[in-house]
Structures are given as structure tokens and as C-alpha cells.
Design goal:
Number of helices: 23
Largest sheet: 7 strands, mixed
Strand order of the largest sheet: 13-25-24-23-14-21-22
Distance between the termini: 22 Å
Strand content: 15-25%
Number of domains: 4
Low-confidence stretches: 1-52, 159-166
Oligomer: single chain
Shape: elongated
Number of strands: 25
């Protein structure tokens, strides 16, 4: 498919699908999933998607309890101000408020003992601060501290979950309805999940495609922005692939179904995004290792300060100020924002760790066929233009009668062939194919096929790829040289990678030396290895690592699977990539556009810098409020508020990654 030079937004005619793409214009936001709920209301594992029913219930319960506590606190303050003689009643009301928000705190703290980590540290620190408040009878503080945490959590969730509905809409794009065509051409409207491979569906202007498929007939332009990030609609016609979620903007299309539901490219986007966030970034795992010593240090410091100052308020404020929520959120929020930003560009990251690794890579190893090249043979333009119209039509008609790659390349010489003009087709394995086209004998194949029919054939020209002879009416017509051309964007993609520091670019292919060297020279690759078996590719990647390089491996076939696994980061090129390659890779490019490689690298490096900035902000802010608390300059409630300010600052910094261009 090629970008349309002229396109218009057609008015929908009976649009199907029922989902508003406007929702998808907003970034797909990150959210975090519960392992257990801490005292701040934080979740304990990064996730992308919608809250589960249990999570919604727990969050709703905390907010209801918080609202109840606010009402009771206001009542207690009103009693003390309006009726000073009812101080004991006001104290009982404040106690009820503290109980409302305190019970979830202690429940979370107990669960945290079974799940040590930074989140558990937060649970326990807040719980100890509340115990201190209860012991000295400061019931208002016992209510205000967890209340501030819940309010901060609500703000944080709003920041992180503001566009979580986008993922639901994204998922729903494959669940619309479709117009299915039967053998007689009759149309039946069915749910998209009732379709099956090889079904034929009709797409009218304004319809959203609910499946991955191949255009059988018709021409139009397709808006694929929700899937690949491509802002310009793509022209498509017979033989072109369309993806679920794309919107038909022009004429009528008939599409043969290939994949439905979760098996579509769009379904895989959702699945990979949901899987990717479930792994903690390396820095988060490192911080978790120090959670125990950190908790002990804070407890000892708070107790010593409390004893030295004789103030339980200082002790409580220090405990609350030391809650490491901002540190906990810093890396996961940034990494998940990067994953969401990558998905919007058609780059699927399976694990947050792969972004960290990609940021440090310095070399890249490419497969050739289907990765750097288009993956299909074509007749050289010079040879095709030298054919007469009759010879061109004959070669195309005969080529369509065979599934051999050489014959299929010849089939592209004249798309307007007619099956009725073809007769008496005979294919000889390893030699070629012959038949009658428009009543004339046509032969397409090796020299021996033609000489066996008494046809004189001149010597074949020198060429690094396949060469096929064409005869028409008993006369030799031409030698047709075939080649697998580099992708249109390959040269520019490699140039962009060199600008990012990937000076070492290696081609490792199973193809012949002559073919590999020609492609390598054409694209300016620094090193070429040809006739490589899967084991040879694996050995090449291992040697690259032993030599001190951090290689990215890019491929699309089954024979690339071992190398993709062995690389520091493996990237599968979409489009024609095999399921095995996609499963073996760490990152997948949905549309196969090689320029996504440089986008992925820039995004990974931006993510790494953002994580460092967020960690610096979180650490500096936490130290600052600990100092203020230790000096007795802020109350426990103020420490809780300032703690949330740091957490929100980290989230806002993480959100900046969504706006990264390129």
C-alpha cells in the first residue's frame, strides 16, 4: 500500500463498529495493578488497561470512607467551635473519623508484611505514624494523614488513568459488526467475532474493518492511524493487506478474512501492552532490594528524633515524610508511558526491560529477505519495459498459473490478465512452465525448457539473482532478470540509525554471496555475512556480544528466531513476519516500516533519561520533606500533602514522554 496523494474523508454510509476514534486521540495512559493495596491507596504492580471489578470496589470503598471521615472531622471541628462544652463528644466523633480511614491502613500494613518491598515500606510507615497518633490521643492527625494519602491517590489515579477508556475503545475496534458476503454475493450483517478465515466481507466508505485481511476487489484509502500511527491514509487495492481498526475512507472494498479478534494486529497490540507492563523495570527491582534497610533506618531515625525532641509530632511527621511513594512510581510510570507512546507509533514492546536494554545498544544485525528487502522477487524495470505488450501479457498470464516465486514475479508484468486466455498449462519441476495464451505457445523458464522445444536461446546475462527465459510463438523473446529490491525506506532508516550511534550495521543472511554483497553495497552496510544457516546467525550474534558490542537483531522469518532470542534486543519486522519470529522477538514493528527502528531507539533513550530525572526528583523531594519534618517545621498532615506533591511531580514528568516526536 502506498500513501494516497489525494484523498478525502467520505461521509460514512451505514458505518459499522460503533466506536468513536476520538477517544484514541488521547495517549493510552498507564495504570498500576494491585498486588495488594497500600496505605496510600497505591497499587503494587504496573499495568495498562482497565481496573478490575475488585480494584474498582476497593478504590470506591476507600473514597467513600474518606468522604465519611471528612464529614465527621468537619462535625468534630464544628462541635469544638460552636459548643466548647461538648469537647468529649467532639473527641468521639474525631475517633470515628480516624477509624473510618484507619482500618484500611492497618489492613494494608498487615498484608505488606507478606509482600516486602518499597510499597510495603509505605504501608508500614503510615501505619506506625497512625499508631503514634492514637497513643498520644491526636485523633485528628490519625484521620488527616490517611485522608491526605487517599486524596493524593485519587489525584494520581486521575493523572494515570485519565484516558484508560482509550484502551477499551482500542479493544472494541475488533468487536464491531461486518457485512459478510456469501457465495452468491448476498450480504448478511454479523458480529465481527463470528467471522472466520476465508470469509469475504464488504467495507463501504466510513466502515471500520473488524479483521485483518487481504483486499479481493475494489480500491480505496484506509486510515490506519490507530494501529500503525501513520497519519496519511494508505491506498489499497487487490492483494493489499488491511488491518483491523482501519477506516475505509473511499470506495467499496471486498476483503478476504485472515485473522479475527485477538489474533489480529490490533488484538496483539492490546495483548502486548497488557503484558509489557506486568514486569517491573530493573531500577524498581533494585530499589525493592533496599526496602528492608530503608524501613529500619527510617524507624530508628524517627524514634531518635522523637526522643531527642520529646515530640511525638516530629516522630509522626518523619515517618510520613519518609514514605517512598514517589520513588516507587518513578520508573514504572515512565516505562509504561513509553510503552504506550511506542504502541501509538506501531511499535510493540513486550517488556519494560527491553526498553532499558535498547537504550544501551550500539550495533545492529539485519536479516535480508523480508527485513531489509521487500521479500518478493520482481522483474527488473529495464527488462520489463523492453517487452512488447503481447509478450508482457503472455508472461503475466502464464506466471499467474504457478505458485513458484519466479512465476509470481512475472505475474506482476500485467495485472489485467484474463484466465480465459490461458490454456494447456504444463509445469515442469525445476525447469519452468508452458501453455497457450491467446492461442500462442508460451514458455517461461530455464534454457533447457526452451531448447527442448527447438528454440534457439542466447547466453544468459550475468546477474546475481534468478534469470528466466521467455519464448512466445516458438521464438525467444527476452531474458527476464529478477531481484528482491530493498525496501523503499531502508536507506533512510539505516542513515537515521547511524546518526544515533549505530555505526556498526551487519547483514547476516542465508542468501548467496553475490546477492548479499549487492544489497550490502547498495545500502552501505559495514559488514556482510551470506549463506548463513539459523545456527550461523546465532553464532554471529554471540560473537558480536563477546566482542563487547550490544547488538539489536532485526528479522522477520522462522530462520531468524534463534538470533532474535540471542540478541540484547530482538525486533521483529511486521507485515510478512512469521509468527515464530514475532514470538521470539522482544519488540515488534506492526507495519514493518524500518524507520520505526530509530523511533524506538529515541524513545528508549528518552525513557532512560526521564527515569533518571524522576528518580532524582523523587529522592531529592523525599530528603527535603524528611529534613523539614525532623526540624519540626511541618506537621504530619503537611508531610502527607508534600509527599503527594512529589508523587504528582514524578507522574507529570513521566507523562512528558507521550509527547516525544519521531
Amino acid at each position: 500500500m502506498k500513501p494516497s496523494a489525494l484523498f478525502h474523508h467520505a461521509r460514512p454510509a451505514e458505518p459499522l463498529g460503533g466506536h468513536d476514534l476520538g477517544v484514541l486521540a488521547a495517549p493510552v495512559a498507564a495504570r498500576r495493578q494491585h498486588e495488594h493495596d497500600d496505605a496510600c491507596g497505591h497499587h503494587h504492580q504496573v499495568d495498562i488497561g482497565l481496573l478490575s471489578g475488585r480494584e474498582r470496589f476497593l478504590l470506591g470503598t476507600r473514597l467513600v470512607l474518606a468522604l465519611g471521615a471528612v464529614g465527621l472531622l468537619v462535625l468534630a471541628w464544628a462541635l469544638r467551635w460552636l459548643r466548647p462544652g461538648e469537647a468529649e463528644l467532639a473527641q468521639w466523633v474525631a475517633m470515628a473519623a480516624a477509624l473510618l480511614v484507619g482500618v484500611p491502613v492497618f489492613s494494608s500494613a498487615l498484608r505488606s508484611l507478606r509482600s516486602p518491598g518499597l510499597h510495603g515500606t509505605t504501608d508500614l510507615l503510615v501505619a506506625m505514624a497512625l499508631i503514634a497518633a492514637w497513643m498520644i490521643g491526636d485523633l485528628e492527625t490519625a484521620a488527616l494523614v490517611p485522608l491526605a494519602m487517599v486524596i493524593g491517590h485519587a489525584i494520581e489515579e486521575r493523572s494515570l488513568l485519565g484516558s484508560q477508556e482509550a484502551l477499551a475503545a482500542l479493544t472494541g475496534l475488533t468487536r464491531g459488526q461486518a457485512r459478510r458476503l456469501d457465495a452468491q454475493g448476498a450480504i448478511t450483517t454479523v458480529d465481527g467475532d463470528r467471522l472466520a478465515p476465508q470469509d469475504r466481507i464488504e467495507l463501504r466508505p466510513g466502515d471500520r474493518c473488524p479483521v485483518d485481511g487481504v483486499v479481493d476487489s475494489g480500491r480505496s484509502s484506509i486510515d490506519t492511524a490507530p494501529i500503525t500511527g501513520e497519519s496519511v491514509p494508505l491506498e489499497c487495492g487487490p492483494g493489499d493487506r488491511v488491518l483491523a481498526g482501519g477506516i475505509n475512507q473511499g470506495g467499496r472494498l471486498v476483503v478476504v478474512v485472515e485473522r479475527i479478534g485477538a489474533e489480529t494486529a490490533l488484538g496483539r497490540v492490546v495483548a502486548l501492552m497488557q503484558d509489557a507492563e506486568r514486569s517491573k523495570p530493573d531500577i524498581t527491582r533494585l530499589l525493592d532490594r533496599f526496602a528492608g534497610p530503608y524501613l529500619l533506618l527510617v524507624m530508628l531515625t524517627a524514634i531518635l528524633l522523637g526522643v531527642a525532641t520529646g515530640s511525638a509530632t516530629v516522630l509522626m511527621a518523619t515517618l510520613v515524610a519518609a514514605c517512598p511513594c514517589a520513588l516507587v512510581v518513578a520508573a514504572p510510570a515512565t516505562a509504561v508511558a513509553a510503552i504506550a507512546a511506542a504502541a501509538r507509533r506501531g511499535i510493540l514492546v513486550k517488556n519494560t526491560a527491553f526498553l532499558e536494554r535498547l537504550a544501551g545498544c550500539d550495533s545492529i544485525i539485519f536479516d535480508k529477505t523480508g527485513t531489509l528487502t521487500e521479500g518478493q522477487l520482481t522483474v527488473l524495470d529495464g527488462d520489463a519495459q523492453g517487452l512488447s505488450p503481447a509478450a508482457r501479457r503472455a508472461a503475466a498470464a502464464l506466471g499467474r498459473a504457478s505458485s513458484h516465486p519466479v512465476a509470481q514475479a512475472c505475474a506482476g508484468l500485467d495485472p489485467a490478465w484474463s484466465p480465459a486466455a490461458l490454456a494447456d498449462v504444463q509445469e515442469t519441476s525445476g525447469q519452468g512452465i508452458g501453455g497457450q495464451v491467446d492461442g500462442q505457445a508460451v514458455l517461461l523458464g530455464r534454457t533447457g525448457l526452451l531448447t527442448a522445444q527447438g528454440i534457439a536461446v542466447p547466453p544468459a546475462p550475468a546477474h546475481e539473482g534468478p534469470v528466466v527465459a521467455l519464448a512466445l510463438g516458438g521464438q525467444w523473446q527476452a531474458w527476464l532478470r529478477l531481484s528482491d529490491r530493498p525496501r523503499a525506506e531502508a536507506s533512510e532508516a539505516l542513515r537515521e540509525l547511524r546518526a544515533l550511534g549505530f555505526e556498526r550495521q551487519v547483514l547476516c543472511t542465508g542468501d548467496r554471496h553475490a546477492v548479499a554483497d549487492a544489497i550490502g553495497a547498495q545500502l552501505g552496510l559495514s559488514e556482510v555475512h551470506a549463506e548463513a544457516l539459523p545456527a550461523d546467525k546465532l553464532a554471529r550474534v554471540r560473537r558480536e556480544i563477546i566482542a563487547g558490542h550490544q547488538p539489536v537483531v532485526v528479522g522477520d522469518g522462522i530462520n531468524d528466531a534463534l538470533a532474535l532470542k540471542a540478541g540484547v534486543v530482538g525486533i521483529a519486522v511486521g507485515g510478512r513476519s512469521s509468527d515464530v519470529a514475532a514470538a521470539s522477538a522482544d519488540i515488534a514493528l506492526i507495519d514493518g516500516n524500518l524507520r520505526r527502528l530509530s523511533q524506538a531507539v529515541r524513545l528508549a533513550r528518552t525513557c532512560r533519561i526521564s527515569i533518571l530525572i524522576s528518580l532524582t526528583i523523587a529522592a531529592a523531594w523525599t530528603v527535603l520533606i524528611i529534613i523539614l519534618a525532623a526540624a519540626g517545621l511541618i506537621s504530619p498532615f503537611a508531610a502527607a500533602i508534600l509527599h503527594n506533591v512529589g508523587t504528582v511531580a514524578v507522574i507529570l514528568n513521566a507523562g512528558r514522554i507521550i509527547a516525544v516526536r519521531g
